[in-house]
Amino acid sequence: MIVAVLLRKLMEALLTLICATVILFMLIRLAPGDPAVLLLGQPSEVAAMHTEVYEQKAAELREQWGLDQPMAIQYVSWLGRLVQLDLGTSLHTGRAVSAELAERLPATLQLTAAALAVQLLLGFWLGIVSALKAGTFSDQLIRLACVTLASTPAFVTGLCALLLFAVTLGAYEISSEASWSRLWLPALTMGLASMPQFARMVRANMLAELGQTYVLAALSRGLARRRVIGQASRNALLPLVTVTALSAATFASGAVVIESLFAWPGIGKYALDSILRKDYPVIQGYAFVMVTLVILIHLCVDVLYAYIDPRLQRKRRQVTRGVNEHA
Amino acid sequence: MHAASEAILIVEQLQVSYRSKEQARPILHGLNLTLHQGETVCLLGESGSGKSTLAKAITGLLPPSAQVGSGSLALAGGIAVDLADDNGSGSIPWQRIRGTELALLFQDARQALNPVMTIGQHFKETLLDHRKAKPDEVESISCRLLRKLGFTDPLVLLSSYPFQLSGGMCQRICLAIALCLEPKVLIADEPTSALDTVSQREVLSLIRAMQLDLGLTVLLITHDLAVARAVSDRVIVLDQGRLVEQGSVQRVFSQPKALFTRQLLAYRSQVSAPAKLRSTRKSSACLLEVRRLHKSYDANQPIVRDASLTLDEQEIVGVLGQSGCGKSTLARCIAGLETPNAGSILLRGTDISGLQGKARREICRRIQMVFQDARASLHPGRTAQQLVQEPLQYLRIGNKQERIALASHYLQEVGIEGEAQYRKPPQLSTGQCQRIAIARALVLKPEVLICDEAVSALDVRIQAQILKLLKRLHKQYRFSILMISHDVSVLRSFCHHIAVMSDGRFQEGKQASVRLHESSQPHTQLLLRCAGDLEEVRI
Amino acid sequence: MHSTRRSVSLIAGTVLLGLLAVLIAGAHWISPYDPVQQHAAERLEKPSAQHPFGTDRFGRDLLARTLHGGQITLLSAMAALSGALAIGLAVGLAAGMFHNSLLDRLFMRMIDVLLAFPFMVLAMVVAALFGTSLFHLLLAVIAVGWVTFARLARSVVLQARNETSFAAARVLGASNRTLILRELAPKALSPVLILATFELGSLILSIAALSFLGLGAQPPTPEWGSMLADGREYVLQSPHIMFGPALFIMLSVLAFNLIGEGLRDRLDPYEKPQL
After folding, report:
1. Relative to the CA of C216, which of A178, A223, C77, C78 has its CA 20 to 30 Å away?
2. B154 touches chain A (CB under 8 A)
3. Nearest to B448 by CA among B349, B327, B315
4. What are the Cα distances from residue B198, in Å, to A170, B157, B410, C23?
5. What's B119's domain CATH number?
6. Mean pLDDT over all residues of chain C?
7. Beta-carbon separation of A290 and C121 below 8 A
8. What CATH number was assigned to the domain covering residues C2-28+59-267?
9. Maximum C-alpha span of chain B
10. Helix, strand or coil for residue B238?
């Protein structure tokens, strides 16, 4: 049964991916101007190239990409190349986009994981404390701090952090390397920026769980307070797996600001530089990789839920054995 | 015999109030209560009388908005606590009292179990936390208890989750978990109110059996007179936070002293008295016919299968069944809320099943429905007047003045008069809400009124009033009523005919309600036996 | 006592927002300088009585730029959000009302697909392909922003459809239109509006962030994010140029967040049991 559910989820994810590629494809076609020019760069920008040569190159490109063929065929052939992980070549470096992105992906993932850890640990702790002390001064304080933090743009926090640690204290090295010693500041900035929202949800879910009858029932059995809180917080966290996955996706894609601020050589900074350089194949490749990543994350969440929430696993299997009929 | 046995729980001068907005609303006014070893005491009261507050106060589970003004709790083992200390200070050693001294059963047993823990894990944490067993003994202890409570295959049960079990099973499991700590007193807060008659009887007889077996003292909190009579040794009647009467069950039920108790008993007999309204009705034309109706959401689990039923003009037919038997789905199909998968619903010979859009709305004039939870069926922000005008607006009947006049007329008919017509549901009582719901249905002058458990959630006093009202309106406006209920006595007192539903179908056609006990169907007999036991026999 | 404490954040948020609105609307009167006019002689001046926030690298008064920038930032965020809100509410109501119909499935598929596009990614692609401008950015906001509202509205509607009051209204002869407008929309509106106040805050942050990256408003338009981006190279020498826009971004987002918190506490007042 569970296999069938997973299979269905997989099919849905594939369908979503295909729809997403259609949108990506259409976006490029909808963009003003000749796609060949977009892909090759404006004649004025491609210096050191005669008009004839440029035209010839453009014609080659049109033929190679099948730009003169009907849209549907163009799309299918593009999809075919995508399947073979051929994302085209960068206009700037002339290297394969897939290779360029693969080089930078680890740095982004490293940052994402670290930021996620900051968000989860801090958000969970503050959220639970705030829920347990709901209505008290410490709860108000935590909430106020969270609201303030949530209202501060990440780049402002980042700039302040840079000013403080790099300029004033000199405790942070300004370079463009992805090293462990440089990880903590961007990770902290990113994690802190998204922590308040997570803490707020933890608090709300925890309060909702604490209001459930099973909490009263557990207390009425004389169980230790710790244990009851543990049970409730576990149940409060179950629905937050999705949220966590979503923020992982946001981190991976939205690392742009932090990466460019801290000169972290990740995929986001690369994409931003490519936009400013009008390196279309890279942007297209970046978008495709990100969308695929998000869909994969969603799929993982679905699979994870099937395992951690018994309610989904056994919904249909009602227990009827072991029950005597009415006396 | 009880006078001789020692007091095991003494509550004195318990005062509890709830803060809401600025003012404090008193719930309990200095209540005194003594339980003796081995007895079953029933705390009887209407909703809002403070009986659940008592249970929560003596287990320290009151919500923060509750304030204990005064009160002391003394238990047999020499434990004495001042309940007024229990305002979040944590000075009362509740962990020593809860579970081992006092155990608590909740109304909704399924909610009382952690949804993501197996039954076995519940036993395990309870036993281990109190160091009542070593880890390797947990399974054998819990299996033994579950067997004692009538489960034949406890191992399967231990590995299953609450959502896989029925409400009755969950309550029995809660009982088992409570008993595994060998508590001295079991406080059961409406343990059977959410259950149907059959499971109700099962749970009650189990509590009784365990009490006799283990020498347990039981405080049973209920609003149900039949439950109180069936299981208790002593009855304490609570009215608006005050103890109005206490005494042995025989004495209270045969010679009630307090006015409140006398009224309560009178209402109950009114509700369950065999009706005298049959035979005056001539046999008349068939108004509504349900033919081989089939409804399922999941192909493997049909809710209604092959159900057939007829309703004549001006007839009152009761549909009796346990929860989950499909009676509500049947009602919803007839009211046009659900589209049946197969079969037909004929209103004066025309099929009305599964109509959509305008055609469905036309049928609304002719078939109306009153729901179990009247308050939930009314928009909280609209006045009684507006609520009754709603169907007229929806179906574009009359102009504004006519609508107001019609609404006032029907509101008067149901006893909502004067200034009350301009109040909103939150300012009205549950009984008044149900009256508005009835007026709202009748304002369209329907031919059929479906009452889906319309009186089941009400206190017996209001139940009697609503049933009386329905009877009067039925006589006056000559509509037919389809009464859906799990309550045999209500149906027997109110309906001409009763059809018994089980597993989504009617095993036999409708029976004259006076002759229901002659039915040969085993299921009907079971329902009657369970209800009858509660009525007259002690468990 | 509880209710008063709860509404503190609502009152604080509203007062703060009102204050900001007055400041921003009265930009002309409060700071007489032209936000775009350059003064080479007054470059990178520190805050003074004449220039409370100082001047930027072109000698423009930062207070004037901040206040004028607020008009652009806040108005564009509100415009984009209203667009997303309207679409989201309509789609959510329709999908919820006709649950499991072809329409619902189509919408859900669309939502699934759009959810795969993180906002930043879409905004960057749009900026790259269609050119960097605030208008394109706002279109991108609407394109993905409605999804959140639609999902919330749909889930509220699905819940409301199972309530007795919905069944009662149907039995009383309400048409689909009446059901949506009278029974479902009011129930969906309050949670959606609360979400919208929070979203407005985060939208201001996103627009500012994208402008900061150079993908939103273009110079010389005064806009908070682009002002920050503009000052980025000089920030290490003269940090004061960040102060104005950063403060205003913070305060306006804070105002919306406080209002959101206050409204939500009012919508679901929960009570914690004693442990």
Report:
1. A178
2. yes
3. B315
4. 77, 21, 38, 70
5. 3.40.50.300
6. 84
7. yes
8. 1.10.3720.10
9. 76
10. strand
Q: With beta carbons under 8 A apart, name residues in chain B contacting A219.
A: 60-61, 94, 98
CA distance A319 to B4: 46
pLDDT above 80 (res C52): no
Query: Could you tell me the two tokens for A111?
Result: 């940052």
Asked if the C-beta of B139 comes within 8 angstroms of chain C's C-beta atoms, the answer is no
Q: Would you say residue B300 has pLDDT above 80?
A: no
Q: What is the full DSSP assignment across B97-155?
A: HBTTTEEEE-SSTTTTS-TTS-HHHHHHHHHHHTT-S-GGGHHHHHHHHHHHTT-S-HH
Band of residue B88 on the pLDDT scale cut at 50, 70, 90: low
Q: Is residue B44 part of a domain?
A: yes
DSSP E strand boundaries for A164-286: none
**Domain range for residue B95?**
7-270
Q: C-alpha angle A11/A17/A18, rounded to 5°?
A: 90
Q: Residue B277's pLDDT band (boundaries 50, 70, 90)?
A: low
Rounded-to-integer distance, Cα B496 and Cα C149, Å: 52
Structure ipTM: 0.84
Q: Cα separation of A140 and B241, whole Å?
A: 36
Which residues 184-203 in chain B show a CB within 8 A of chain A? 198, 202
Domain match, B196 and B231 both: yes
Q: Side chain identity at C164, as an amino acid letter?
A: T
Written as one letter, the residue type at C185 is: A
* B398 occurs within a structural domain: no
The predicted model scores a pTM of 0.85
Are A220 and B61 inside 8 Å of each other by CB? yes
Please tell me the distance from the alpha carbon of residue C169 to that of residue B435, in angstroms, as a whole number: 16
Sheet of strand B66-75: strand arrangement: B23-36, B7-20, B66-75, B80-82
User: Taking CA atoms, what residue in C is nearest to B361?
Assistant: C173
Residues of chain A with C-beta less than 8 angstroms from the C-beta of B113: 214, 217
B312 and B233 both lie in a single domain: no
Phi and psi at B116, nearest 5°, equal -105, 15
Which two structure tokens, joined as six digits, stand for B416?
A: 């909502």
Output the furthest CA–CA distance in chain C (Å, rounded): 77
User: Of B104, B369, B394, which to mutate for an interface test with C (greatest number of C Cβ within 10 Å)?
Assistant: B394
Identify which of C250, C256, C248, C216 has the alpha carbon closest to the alpha carbon of residue C66. C248
User: Cα(B315)–Cα(B385) distance, rounded to whole angstroms?
Assistant: 30
Residue pair A215/A228 in contact (Cβ under 8 Å)? The answer is yes
Encode pLDDT of B106-122 as tens digits.
Answer: 988 989 999 889 999 99
Please check whether residues B301 and B374 belong to one and the same domain: yes
Task: Say if residue B248 is in the same domain as residue B296.
Answer: no
Contact predicate A327/B150, CB 8 Å: yes
Residues B236 and B156 in one domain: yes
- B60: helix, strand or coil: coil
pLDDT tier at A39, thresholds 50, 70, 90: low
Cβ atoms < 10 Å from Cβ of B520: 8
Q: Do C274 and B63 touch (CB under 8 A)?
A: yes
| Residue tagged 């927002």 (tokens) | C17
Same structural domain, B294 and B234: no
Is the preceding omega at residue C273 within 30 degrees of 0, hence cis?
no
Residue B33 and residue B29: Cα distance in Å, rounded? 12
Q: pLDDT of B145-172, one tens digit each? A: 999 888 888 998 999 888 888 888 999 9
Look at residues C12, B23, C265, C15 and name the one whose alpha carbon lies nearest to residue A135: C265
DSSP codes, C84-151: HHHHHHHHHHHHHHTTTSHHHHHHHHHHHHHHTS-HHHHHHHHHHHH-S-HHHHHHHHHHHHHHHHHH
Closest alpha carbon to A274 in B499, B425, A266, B468: A266
